[in-house]
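Subject: complex prediction, re-run

Hi both,

The earlier run crashed halfway through, so I resubmitted it with identical inputs.
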Amino acid sequence: MPKVEVPRKSIYRLSIYQRSRLKLIENNVETVSSEALASAAGVKSTQLRKDLTYFGQFGTRGLGYNVKALSRVLNDVLGTTSYQPVILVGVGNLGSALLRYKGFNKEGFEITAAFDLAPTRERRTEGARVPVYSANTMADFIRNHQVRMAIIAVPSEAAQNVVNELVEAGVQAILNFSPTVLQVPENVTVNNVDLALELENLSYFIR
Amino acid sequence: MPKVEVPRKSIYRLSIYQRSRLKLIENNVETVSSEALASAAGVKSTQLRKDLTYFGQFGTRGLGYNVKALSRVLNDVLGTTSYQPVILVGVGNLGSALLRYKGFNKEGFEITAAFDLAPTRERRTEGARVPVYSANTMADFIRNHQVRMAIIAVPSEAAQNVVNELVEAGVQAILNFSPTVLQVPENVTVNNVDLALELENLSYFIR
DNA sequence: AATTGTGAATTGATTCACAGCT
DNA sequence: AGCTGTGAATCAATTCACAATT
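This time it finished cleanly. Structure:
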């Protein structure tokens, strides 16, 4: 599987295809054309086909893609076949919010533990069943449970240090909610979600 | 100001330059080179210069950019000079989380009101001072307060209808947390934040 | 001497156009 | 006949290289 040279955006789209496919499977469709699936996903059919052929040939000319087979391929490529434990670091404002958010579970992820400098803060975790541990137990937890993915929602000043510790302990992929540019070794992937940035960006488009 | 043909990503970067600049102003620097600012922002200096020249010439050759003047330009371009009221639609899981999140305020935005089908749901808004109103008062509120920006965090099935109502009432920019592709007229801008998608995407990069 | 501003070159992503299967 | 797979063409964004300016 050629992990390199595949455009980042293609991989994002694979997830979207998977979701669009979910709707189709409900309708009991056996087979789907690139045209139909692409339009459900909001892209051009050639783009869908090109995205898929980065990973092989899965369709049947004249017919389309077998829905179940396609689903399997997408799961394989995306790595969503095997369960991945995810930890959350920083149970403040946003962090506690994310703990309660059920959208992750819905798509097959589960936050197995959370870490914070002051793990016992009041009212923070009410309603969530995820345990919150002290930050100094984090590295051990990662090693013991072979955690490869982490979500960080700590103050920006703290972010780089946390990331260093995560990487050191073996984390390979980080979803970063702290508004900072993080330095990581090249075998580690960071996806940034910057809420304030998105709002600020929108304000540009209001005239 | 040539709103069109400027790459979307450039505009995102302008916000990052603004932030990086904030750190520099603290250090009382009068002037800053594209090289210094770019490296603080994590980009190449030529990219910064190109990004800026979409909007004019603000530097002095041989010297760099005046920090204060640059800040003013960035605020002007981004539209962050004038205060913008923002509403939130959907006070469920994620929505109530966003209500409590203070990061928006920090960057000069404030959620002035929230709307939900069941505005009185328990414990949802404890700790937040934002009023939650019934969804059927939304359109009036938008018109009365000239709201142009909205954050939506409703279930995906509901998202398109909500968006239609927002647009109809005059909203021009939408930050969408619902995992759906939204249809909007071309004078309306949507930024999507899809948390589950980001996680799924990361799982690709774990080998 | 230092640093911006910018056309030209390059790199990257998307779309086209059509050959190749079923 | 219908639809995939893909090299070639186009479009977009980034980076280079250097002339222009202080």
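The mean pLDDT of chain A is 90.

- K.
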